[in-house]
Write a structure and sequence with these properties.
Layout: E1 8-12, H1 17-28, E2 33-38, H2 41-47, E3 54-58, H3 64-78, E4 83-86, H4 101-126, E5 134-139, H5 152-174, E6 179-186, H6 192-199, H7 205-214, H8 224-235, E7 246-249
Parallel strand pairs: 1-2, 1-4, 2-3, 4-5, 5-6, 6-7
Helix pairs in contact: 1-8, 3-4, 4-5, 6-7
Keywords: Oxidoreductase
Family: Belongs to the short-chain dehydrogenases/reductases (SDR) family.
InterPro entries: KR_dom, NAD(P)-bd_dom_sf, Sc_DH/Rdtase_CS, SDR_fam
Length: 256
């Protein structure tokens, strides 16, 4: 399928995990350019040669000036911006008693401020008269819907992403910008973040993966490619009447 033929997309955290899976899916769906926006530009440079649609771009999502530069460069080089995927995020294991203020602020800085800045700059580039409309996809989590006793900062950040998405969607709809904004809420997914969470727990990565898998009604964790398939739909014109939605893809976890 070529549902994204000719579209220009920017994916944060695009050099690994879910971000890279989304970038690859967008390229297969015909995207003209997929900007791999990553703080680790060396990793983006390493991945970029695998597809001519890939273009690495250094981006610290917590920095307003980085966002302005990345979006302006995308528009100048590729003629516009049609899709933004705010995927970059971090998780820290910690309860309300064990978390430090520094840890709390770092998670909010990346997950909340980074998403806010991305949305603001994407709307600027996509809205008329200069823009041609577009789609913003924010990666939240099931942890933005239900709580976890030891994910205080992460829960708060992903809950904020969930409701920021709805506010952006309603604003753009009221302004008739032609910009849609939706959030994706993955369940447990086999990525580097799962291994990072294991490092902050008493379990090995394999042990943690197995424990999480046991709590999923479908009996397994998600593959990053499955999240990418949903992102491709939301980025496409097939989702033209979908905005402000929270798309849960969790194997049934939140149905319990």
């Amino acid at each position: 399928m070529q549902r994204l033929a000719g579209k220009v997309a920017l994916v944060t955290g695009g050099a690994r995990g879910i971000g890279l899976a989304i970038a690859r899916r967008f390229a297969r769906e015909g995207a003209a350019a997929v900007i791999l926006a990553d703080r680790d530009n060396a990793e983006a440079e390493r991945v970029a040669p695998e597809n001519p649609a890939f273009h690495p771009c250094p981006l610290d999502v917590t920095q307003d000036e980085d966002w302005a530069r990345a979006v302006d460069r995308t528009v100048a080089r590729h003629g516009g911006l049609d899709v933004l995927v705010n995927n970059a995020g971090i998780a820290v294991v910690g309860t309300i008693e064990s978390l430090t203020l520094e840890e709390w602020r770092r998670v909010q800085d990346v997950n909340v401020d980074g998403t806010f800045l991305g949305c603001r700059h994407a709307v600027r580039a996509m809205k008329p008269p200069a823009g041609r409309g577009g789609a913003i996809i924010n990666l939240s989590s099931v942890s933005g819907i239900v709580g976890g006793h030891n994910l205080a900062a992460y829960n708060a950040s992903k809950g904020a992403v969930r409701l920021l998405t709805k506010s952006v969607a309603l604003h753009c709809a009221r302004q008739r910008y032609g910009v849609r904004c939706n959030s994706i809420h993955p369940g447990f997914t086999e990525t580097d973040m799962l291994r990072d969470l294991a490092a902050g727990s008493r379990y090995t990565p394999d042990e943690l993966s197995e424990r999480l898998r046991a709590s999923v009604p479908l009996g397994r964790n998600a593959a990053a490619e499955e999240i990418a398939g949903l992102a491709a739909y939301l980025a496409s014109d097939e989702a033209g009447f979908v905005t402000g939605a929270e798309m849960v893809i969790d194997g049934g976890v939140t149905a319990q």
